[in-house]
Amino acid sequence: MNRTNAPPETIPRIGMSHEQNWIQACKGGEPACSNFDYSGPMTEAVVMGNLAIRYPHKKLLWDGANMTVTNFPEANDFVNTHYREGWSL
User: Does the CA dihedral 68-38-20-16 come out positive or negative?
Assistant: First the structure.
């Protein structure tokens, strides 16, 4: 691509590996390019998309604040991890 016709860069470039970018953010630098302000809502949307595929003929009502499906409790089995007795995070 001819650089004279390239669109302007509107997203800052990290200039290092993604791992180093994350480490620098942990040490108090600029927020990482993959910070949770962006990735959290995106992950929530992906989970909802996966639930929609699993239950194609069911309208699922999502409570984002509590991270649960309110009208179909069976779907919540795919939202949260259930640990065996004696195991937890």
Answer: positive
Please state the three-class secondary structure of the chain as a single string: CCHHHCCCCCCCCCCCCHHHHHHHHHCCCCCCCCCHHHHHHHHHHHHHHHHHHHCCCCCCCEECCCCEECCCHHHHHHCCCCCCCCCCC
Within 8 A by CB and 6+ apart from 14, the residues are: 21, 33
Backbone angles phi, psi at 73, to 5 degrees: -55, -30
Answer yes or no: pTM beyond 0.90. Answer: no
Alpha carbons 67 and 41: distance in angstroms, whole number = 11
Residue 9 has pLDDT above 90, yes or no: no
For residues 16-33, average pLDDT: 88
Distance CA 89, CA 80 (A): 12
Cα torsion at 29, 22, 80, 88 (round to 10°)? -90
